Amino acid sequence: MESIMSHRASILSFTLATTSLPSKMSILQQPTTRTPLLNFCPNLQNQTRAFTTKDIPSLLFHHNPSNSSSFKVYSSLNLFSSDQSNMILQDVGATGLVMVGAYSLVLVFDNLTKNQVIQQNLSRKLVHVLSGLLFLSCWPIFSNSAEARYFAAVVPFVNCARLILNGLSLTTDAGLVKSVTREGNPRELLKGPLCYVLILILSAVAYWRDSPVGIMSLAMMCGGDGVADIIGRRYGKQKLPYNQQKSWAGSISMFTFGFLISIGMLKYFTALGYFELDWSSTMGRVALVSLVATIVESLPTTEVLDDNLSVPLSTMLVAVLMFG
Ligand SMILES: C/C(=C\COP(=O)(O)O)CCC[C@H](C)CCC[C@H](C)CCCC(C)C
Ligand SMILES: Nc1ccn([C@@H]2O[C@H](COP(=O)(O)OP(=O)(O)O)[C@@H](O)[C@H]2O)c(=O)n1
Hints:
Layout: H1 2-12, H2 55-61, E1 71-73, H3 84-114, H4 120-137, H5 148-167, H6 174-180, H7 192-206, H8 212-235, E2 239-240, E3 243-247, H9 248-271, E4 275-277, H10 279-298, H11 307-323
Antiparallel strand pairs: 1-4, 2-3
The structure holds the ligand C/C(=C\COP(=O)(O)O)CCC[C@H](C)CCC[C@H](C)CCCC(C)C and cytidine-5'-diphosphate.
The ligand C/C(=C\COP(=O)(O)O)CCC[C@H](C)CCC[C@H](C)CCCC(C)C is lined by residues 98, 101-102, 105-106, 124, 127-128, 131, 134-135, 138, 155-156, 159, 180, 192-193, 196-197, 200, 307-308.
Transmembrane segments: 92-113, 125-142, 148-168, 189-208, 214-231, 252-275
Keywords: Chloroplast, Kinase, Membrane, Plastid, Transferase, Transit peptide, Transmembrane, Transmembrane helix
Subcellular location: Plastid, Chloroplast membrane
């Protein structure tokens, strides 16, 4: 507790150059006590960045972690100098790269399904698992500007439009329909897949890499729920007493992989220096979040609320309570 209090004291000692905001709303560029793996701008440490009006959207629309009791935020890393045009160039390049990755992923699994290398159901689930986790893994290639999260959100936004256009049969992308739907009905794109990309947008814009909340939501939705389906379909003989559509094997997989992938992703982002966690309590907190998400996913509510909404939203709720 004492170390956290001293951390918070150092955080709050950070001064804002202009508008005086409530102390808990400070923008943080903390000298990292841990040397991140990729320390592109060592001279950033111990620097005070002027607060500008550009920071207000990121203060108003995303969780401000500075008053968190369990983690603190450091300056995110920037590949180039703090020159605005370099940051925009970096974000445009990163957006293009991730966009190509998204199209390539769907194309690869479409071909694997076409050539009967894997079944359509497995293809869809692997796209479900990999899309969000690879998207999340790409967040560090964006700049440290306040707009970076919006550049990143362009990719799921474009895919959202793609799903809507194809789901309404206004355009025809047979590869997308084949690799992302259960029975090959384009209308299916407007259900699980659309919810999925909406959550990617929400996680990027509302939480970004400043907080464990969005990271855990995607880990549970993509890693946990995706693997639960793969394992549950194959080995789920023992059904849950309150839901004959779900099994113990599926739910145990959801908890296990959701927990492990959450921890892995949190280690990844803390190793890069985006924020630090009090690991003595983090494992327990993540386990609790994973348990709640697993219980929510096991409930017979899919007809009412898609798993791609109930799982990440319940994760966000509990993670905000756990991590402040
Ligand atoms: C199959 C998907 C959801 C269906 O879920 P469920 O019904 O089985 O529960 C995922 C749909 C993925 C979407 C079409 C493509 C999203 C791409 C993503 C925004 C960016 C990925 C970038 C990365 C570098 C590959
Ligand atoms: N907890 C779970 C989740 C899924 N599953 C299996 O995976 C199948 C698909 O699960 P789901 O309805 O959650 O699929 P999506 O909505 O995630 O596409 C189920 O019909 C079960 O066979 C399971 O056995 N146990």
